[in-house]
Write a structure and sequence with these properties.
Elements: H1 15-36, H2 41-68, H3 74-97, H4 104-128
């Protein structure tokens, strides 16, 4: 069962950004499924690695669009990206060291962060650049 459903309210109207968001939602769900199925620390860690990697890819895509279109709110938007990356990499380091575990609260944090970021920052970004 999906923890986070992709729906039209999450669409920002830019094909590249929307495609990336759908992939991120899918990876959050895959992580939740791996945890629910008890697939083990290594399997969950692999999904977490993919989620972290794709998040960085997505942020780089958005930041290229911001630069190419001289998006006025780019510094604040990049700062949001940088903070999440720092937080997630810090968690991942602790997870890899065995001092942190995956939990439903982590998934809820990721879902809430992504939803808020899409509805606030990314919808504003999509309105500030030509549709892709």
């Amino acid at each position: 069962m999906a923890m986070m459903e992709w729906n039209d309210s999450l669409k920002v109207g830019h094909s590249i950004i929307d495609r990336d968001h759908q992939k991120l939602v899918g990876l959050i769900n895959e992580l939740g499924d791996a945890m629910s199925a008890g697939r083990g620390r290594q399997a969950c860690g692999e999904v977490l690695d993919e989620l972290v990697s794709y998040t960085q890819t997505h942020f780089a895509n958005e930041e290229r669009l911001m630069a190419a279109h001289r998006y006025a709110d780019a510094p604040r938007h990049r700062a949001e990206h940088a903070k999440l990356v720092r937080d997630v990499l810090d968690f991942k380091e602790k997870y890899n060291a065995g001092t942190a575990t995956l939990s439903v609260s982590l998934l809820h944090f990721l879902m809430a962060w992504l939803t808020h970021h899409i509805l606030e920052s990314d919808k504003a970004l999509a309105h500030g650049i030509p549709p892709g």
